[in-house]
Amino acid sequence: MARYFALVFFLGCASEVVCLQGACGAEQEQPSAPEGAAGCGCDKLKRAVGGGHGSVVELGEDKTLSADPAVKYSTEANERTSEAQGDEKKIQSQMVWISGGEFLMGTDDPAIPADGEGPQRWVHVDSFYMDIQEVTNQQFQSFISVTGYVTEAEKFGDSFVFEGILSEPVKSQITQAVAAAPWWLPVKGANWRHPEGPDSNITARLDHPVLHVSWADAVAYCSWANKRLPTEAEWEYACRGGLKDRLYPWGNKLNPKGQHYANLWQGDFPTHNSGEDGYVKTSPVMSFPANGFGLYDIVGNAWEWTSDWWTVHHTTDQQYNPVGPPSGTDKVKKGGSYMCHKSYCYRYRCAARSQNTPDSSASNLGFRCVSQEQR
Ligand SMILES: *[C@@H]1O[C@H](CO)[C@@H](O)[C@H](O)[C@H]1NC(C)=O
Ligand SMILES: [Ca+2]
Ligand SMILES: [Ca+2]
């Protein structure tokens, strides 16, 4: 099956769909222009397949992508595996009860206005349970072994990896980059089992967040576990941990008493990560303190998919259990990642948000699940 991979972007080299690294690398944003719409460039990761000019996405033989993953991988659809599933369930994430209520969503003091962080508005969410941790490689592996699910990155044959964590042999084979964010490289063979490409593995990272999962992959996993993705409102309510109008899940100071509360980037992005918080890549889940609701890594470590379609327009009317727009092109992700630094990606705040096309996958994007009942 012939497939052409193209990188679509909005800034620089605007008339080209694919641009060679070097040709555009020089146009990288200067650190003196922080917090712009480009941010960490995470939102520039869009697949454009089959020529990259709006043509239909070609899929694998089994057409998995066109089937509703929430149905195909539901417990009911996998009855035959229910015995195995009983065992696998044991390694499901512990969940915590999030008692519903009213909260102020978004902010009237947006750090990145283009992201639609404002206006601040009253939102009610009903009670729900939430995984206390990001879904780990080990948990995802159990899902794969029971269902035989193949992720979108595995079908496409590549995924986006941050240049700074690639080995030289892998880097030397890559000729494309994302113009607006040249530190993102499409790596052949990168997927959840091989986070930095074929010469990497997850053997020593089973307790780290699973990466390179598309939105549909995340939905399939949650559905298999009898759970679902959180709405953006549920996620943000959970992030705030009961605090009102604070920047972070733990308050307004990034490092109270000199302590790190999340796996973020220290140093100069994208050239030098000092790893002052102990990690230059992902950390094992629950390596940093939980927030007031008992949730770990709700900001930092891996970005987390939500169920909402992306929009930057929000009503100021009070909302009850909002689920986002009925349709769209991008899905909302929340929380920032180990790659976020204030100068480029000040998105490890509860009100911050970003987006990706649902078929995107990258080395800093994962998820956690929620449910109405204890699982
Ligand atoms: C996984 O990676 C480690 C270190 O990068 C390497 O030593 C090991 O041999 C790899 N394991 C497999 C099964 O490839
Ligand atoms: Ca870090
Ligand atoms: Ca996270």
TrEMBL record:
Pathway: Protein modification; sulfatase oxidation. Gene3D superfamilies: paralog of FGE (formylglycine-generating enzyme) (3.90.1580.10). Transmembrane segments: none annotated. The keyword Translocase does not apply. Its EC number is 1.8.3.7. Oxidase that catalyzes the conversion of cysteine to 3-oxoalanine on target proteins, using molecular oxygen and an unidentified reducing agent. 3-oxoalanine modification, which is also named formylglycine (fGly), occurs in the maturation of arylsulfatases and some alkaline phosphatases that use the hydrated form of 3-oxoalanine as a catalytic nucleophile. Known substrates include GALNS, ARSA, STS and ARSE. PANTHER family: FORMYLGLYCINE-GENERATING ENZYME (PTHR23150:SF19), SULFATASE MODIFYING FACTOR 1, 2 (PTHR23150). This is Formylglycine-generating enzyme. It comes from Stegastes partitus. The gene is sumf1.
